[in-house]
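2024-03-11 09:14:02 DEBUG pipeline.ingest accepted 1 chain
2024-03-11 09:14:02 DEBUG pipeline.ingest length=291
2024-03-11 09:14:03 DEBUG pipeline.predict start
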Amino acid sequence: MPKPTLKGVGLLNYAILSSVGVLLASTYIVRTLLPFIVAELGSSEIEVSRVLYVGFIVLSLVSPVAGWLSDRFGAWRLLAISSLLIAILIPLYPLLGRVEEVIALRIMHAFMGTFCIASSLAIASWVSRRGGLGFGLLRFSQGVGIAIGPLLASYTARFGYEMAFLIAGAMALTPLISLASGVKPQRAPAPLKAIKKAFSILKACVTCRPLMVVAVSEVLGFTILLTYYTSYMVMKLGFKEIDYGTFLFLEAIGFSLGSYLSDYILRRNTFHSALLGSSILLTSYYSASHY
């Protein structure tokens, strides 16, 4: 079977896959500039960290539900509602005058953002399969969005936070082009049945149990470290938008390279690669605590 060409697959499919990256870039514009918004309110390091980790908490709690809702009620419906609400919520950040207001807005934004990402990924995955594109282009779009977002934040912040967040809000509307793909709503199993099935799979797979503990521990450790070094760089080291944006850009590149290398190494030596990764994480976390 010949590989699909750009003409055969259609520009719409490529635009849909690219819109996922634009949505993530919008998310990372907010993530880059949000600590500076909180710092301008005269907040402490703890309050900066609080605004950041509340988003991670919402993300971890809502993600499973967002995927189920996307299948249950239709990804296109969820995408239309969440994308429009995000575009309205994001420009409100620079207009707030209290940390409590920022936290409340952050919670609403995280809720809608999780729904929007879940539904847009569902549609993009469907488009990838239908067009025979595979998932490489989708992963590439995600990586580019995560890496470019902080740099865009650094540049747009020169024109003021209001303009930067307005641009981020407009970028959040790009996934709406997915509505032209003709994705039909799918029925999903009842949540209780899905949960029982997931637990039965974990119960049957003995190897998965310790891996689940490791995965949860890694996410918790990374979240704690992220909230720590963000507030430290902004409040103590006096990082500017360009400095922090460059840092997040390099972090995204490192994550992409690390994912590729880990996949390459893991195929050859599972135990030693896991041990090496854990040792590097332990060393980096320990070193960060001394700065």
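2024-03-11 09:14:41 DEBUG pipeline.report The two ends are 57 Å apart (CA to CA).
2024-03-11 09:14:41 DEBUG pipeline.predict end
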